[in-house]
From TrEMBL:
<protein>
    <submittedName>
        <fullName>Uncharacterized protein</fullName>
    </submittedName>
</protein>
Length: 93
């Protein structure tokens, strides 16, 4: 219920990206744009979300080397966690 309120009813900024950056018009809920139809479409198409993902990916993987390092670190973490968990699960795998 909280989620529905947050997405469709809570007062929020439109946030659609235009030439002047994020739109600051009031909107109802984070999933709905402001009165501008184009902004509604933009939000429905998830452009904002996609851009966030791209930014997140750029932060995590700025270039190939860092990506490999990050992946290596994650793998090391995972294998470490697996090794730590193995006695608990009986080492069946
Ligand atoms: Zn807008």
């Amino acid at each position: 219920m909280c989620t529905i309120y947050f997405f469709f009813l809570a007062p929020a900024w439109c946030g659609a990206l235009g030439r002047d950056g994020a739109c600051r018009n009031n909107s109802k809920g984070v999933m709905m744009g402001c009165h501008l139809r184009q902004h509604k479409w933009q939000k429905l198409q998830g452009v904002v979300v996609k851009k966030r993902w791209r930014e997140l990916r750029r932060e995590l993987f700025p270039n190939a080397t860092t990506a490999l390092t990050t992946m290596g670190g994650m793998l090391a973490l995972l294998s470490g966690a697996a090794a730590a968990l193995q006695p608990i699960f009986g080492g069946g795998w």
